[in-house]
Every structure is written in C-alpha cells, then in structure tokens.
Amino acid sequence: MDFIIRNSEKKDMPQVLSLINELAVFEKEEDAVEVTVEQLEKDGFGENPLFHCFVAESDSKIVGMALVYSRYSTWKGPVIHLEDLIVTEEYRGTGLGSSLLTSVVKHGKKLNVKRISWEVIDWNEPAISFYESKGANVMRDWDVVQLDAQGIEDYLKNNN
Fold it and tell me: What does DSSP assign to residue 40?
C-alpha cells in the first residue's frame, strides 16, 4: 500500500474528523467527540494555530493522522504533546503508523523540544507494544487527570 505523509491542509479536516470518529468508536467512546470540522479548521489554521497535524494520504484519501501541539514542562522546558496518532484499520501493520510517528519526532527535533509525550489507553496492547518497540517509555504508574467543560463550571461555582 502506497502512502505519503504530509502536513495537513484545511481541506483535509473532514477526513481528519472521520478518523477521529473512527478512533472514538474503537475506544468505545463514539458519543464523546464534540469537535467539528469548522472548529478544526478554525483552530488548526490561521495566524496562531493551536495544533499541527500530519496526514497520511493514499489514493487521494486520508488514511492516517497525527495531531500535536506545544506544551511547556516546568522540569524540561518546551515539549510537544501527541494528542492522537490514528491509522484507519485497513492500513494498520503497513508501516504507516511508524511513518507518522517519525514525522512527529522529526517535527519535535526541528522545534528543539525536550520531550514528546502522549497517552495510550491501558487495554490497547497493540498500541502499547508498538510505542515500546519504538523506544517510548509507557509510564503505567501515572494517571491522567482532567476537568471537562462541566467540571470546569462546577469547580468555579464551588471554589470561587
């Protein structure tokens, strides 16, 4: 299967959203996706983009993506966060995921970041094995902590 990895363009966002929805179904969270094509276009392009996205394209179709954004570590300095690396099911095992990850790592190197971090769901053993095979440290003793939109509202209501 032939594919190319390139920087995403605004016109790619409908297909990127389709991949995001495919991942949500895989992770048994099909109703959790709230982002829209319009929001991806607004947030990812323009003067101050909030993210950078790489896409894998085969036969004019987006079959994979990796979305990253800048963060700052108080211990290390500039870092990037890999929000999602998604490969559509029929392209898994073709090297496409490795190519996307390589693009992310090269991007981080170009930005001179001190770390690239991401999360992986604990039951996705194929992804965990893939990342470990690439030299990533899967830190199983850390828990992800979040406040969603409702949690933010509740917090501010109760702690002001």
Answer: H
Both structure tokens of 126: 């194929």
Tokens representing 97 are 């995921």
How far, in Å, are 51, 105, 130 from residue 46 at the CA level?
A: 11, 23, 34
Residues 69, 72, 131, 155: which is the catalytic one? 131
pLDDT in tens, 81-129: 999 999 999 999 999 999 999 999 999 999 999 999 999 999 999 999 9
Q: Are 57 and 102 a contacting pair, CB within 8 Å? A: no
Asked if 155 is an active-site residue, the reply is no
Torsion sign, CA atoms 122, 20, 131, 75: negative
pTM of the model: 0.91
Listed in order, strand segments (DSSP E) in 26-96 are 52-58, 61-73, 77-87
Q: What is the token pair recorded at 21? A: 């929805």
C-alpha to C-alpha distance for 19 and 38, rounded to whole angstroms: 15
Phi, psi of 154 (to 5 degrees): -60, -45
Taking Cα atoms as reference points, which of 6, 84, 10 lies closest to residue 43?
10
